[in-house]
Amino acid sequence: MTAHDVKDLSLAGAGRLRIEWAEQSMPVLRQVRERFAKEQPLKGIRLGACLHVTTETAVLMLTLKAGGAQLALCASNPLSTQDETAAALVREYDVPTFAQKGEDHDTYYRHLAAVLDMRPQVTMDDGADVISQLHSTRKDLVGDVIGGTEETTTGVIRLRAMEKEGVLAFPVIAVNDADTKHLFDNRYGTGQSTIDGILRATNILLAGRAVVVAGYGMCGRGVAARAKGMGAHVIVTEVEPMRALEAVMDGFVVMPMAKAAEVGDVFVTVTGNTTVMGSDHFGRLKDGAILCNSGHFNVELDLPSLGAMATARRTVRPFVEEFALRNGRRVYVLAEGRLINLASAEGHPASVMDMSFANQALSAEHMVKHGRTLERRVYRVPVEIDREIARLKLASMGVAIDELTAAQTSYLASWTHGT
User: Fold this and answer.
1) Which one of 58, 116, 185, 246 has the lowest number of neighbouring Cβ atoms within 10 Å?
2) What CATH number is given for 4-181+348-396 in this structure?
């Protein structure tokens, strides 16, 4: 039996059906897999991945395996694993998988260690946990690593900080920064799946409610747009003036969180930063306020402070915890402050992850080919990969576009054409 630690292997059949369903909406990755199967660009490469163990991730794993990679996969979030998918990866597809939905802290890090034990040559991260372990507790393995890839905004922030301090031990491609990732996955994927997670957890009506979105990056833009589309009155909080100005120009009310806390009904944090909502805000909340997070780590809501302010707490629905405060008001926290879209829903739609995971697969190929000659830096996805993914996606959608004529190409490259 393939090495594993999953909840229930008997779920494998159901997992396979879900993976096949997702695969239908991932034509770009299917085309990448066909080429990988012929060319074997990852043959013999040990690839350690720490990603959300979802059906879409499974399609990526099958693509990497088709390219010849030796894989090990663990979860990048304790609540994001789909147990059916994890079981199918092991029993149906022979991919070593270490992930269980709801795993505790010790299990999470034991699973990370299992992936590291295979001595990865290429890392594939969703939050930089594999890379963090390689730079702290498992420094002995760094010599084996050619390079890595990183999927999230939060992870890229950490990696750029490591690069700036001169401690990054190998090159990493910031998959998150590819246009075909952050313009679509972050905006449309996070926007839809976050709202989906909130509704599945609570079954509330968003129309007419005040929804506060903390952060107006690509993820925040998506959440704000989807909430507005459902009839919510959207308020945006920001610390960056350019993004705040964009939010105003997009028709949203912008105010500080201290003020928004007094008027909001539903709060969604998507900043990638810590303590976006803390004790100064919790005491201002209306009775029945709902708090959730769609940033990668569970630090955006200061839940220890909220717990200290509570006289009682209880679970009232799956993924919904009630905090009774001393002022008599009740506050509801969804999914323990972890990623709401993956904890109580299924994450991004497959058609969006098709582009994100095509970037992962092609970036891994690029790293295998060129990583040994690259500096220890964080790199953008090569523009030719980004454009090829966009081209393949358009073709799969039956969309044709124009091409520049020779005269147009010449005009754009010339400085002699005047008024």
Assistant:
1) 246
2) 3.40.50.1480
Domain boundaries, the chain: 4-181+348-396, 190-343
DSSP strands (E only) in 193-281:
210-214, 233-237, 253-254, 266-269
Start-to-end CA distance of the chain, whole Å, equals: 72
The owner of tokens 């044709």 is 400
Q: What is the pTM of this model?
A: 0.89
For 38, residues 6+ apart whose C-beta sits below 8 A from its C-beta are none
Query: How does pLDDT run along the chain (419 residues), one tens digit per residue?
Result: 799 999 999 999 999 999 999 999 999 999 999 999 999 999 999 999 999 999 999 999 999 999 999 999 999 999 999 999 999 999 999 999 999 999 999 999 999 999 999 999 999 999 999 999 999 999 999 999 999 999 998 899 999 999 999 999 999 999 999 999 988 999 999 999 999 999 999 999 999 999 999 999 999 999 999 999 999 999 999 999 999 999 999 999 999 999 999 999 999 999 999 999 999 999 999 999 999 999 988 999 999 999 999 999 999 999 999 999 999 999 999 999 999 999 999 999 999 999 999 999 999 999 999 999 999 999 999 999 999 999 999 999 999 999 999 999 999 999 888 76
Q: What is the DSSP letter of 339?
A: B
- CATH 3.40.50.720 given to domain 190-343: yes
Q: Look up residue 212 and give its two tokens.
A: 């506060």
